[in-house]
Specification:
Single alpha-helices involved in coiled-coils or other helix-helix interfaces; endonuclease; zinc ion binding; hydrolase
Length: 123
Amino acid sequence: MGYSKRKIKKIKEIALERIEILMNLAEEAYRKGQLERMRRYIELSRRIAMKARVRFPKKWKRRICKKCLTILIYGVNCTVRTVSDKSCPHVAIKCLNCGNVIKIPMVREKKLKRRLKRMASTK
């Protein structure tokens, strides 16, 4: 027997709330210098997301180093660069703790640029 759709929806809502709370606590723990506690909060929030089969919120997903499980605070423990390759431009976020690089593709910007180019050529 499975859960009803209403019950599944409620479980996912609760999971997202708890993820948000844990990530805020992790950010506070980092500011206080409690790195082990921060890692534990991040680990718990990721487990909750997996157990409830919920996508991890994008705003937090991009601020976590998957290699060393630390919160990335731009300019403090990570660097942000835009890499404009012809084939795939992207934003590169480098963790200064472990050296891991997270690449976020800039596909929307590229599509918008193409669309504007087409519109200009048709007029």
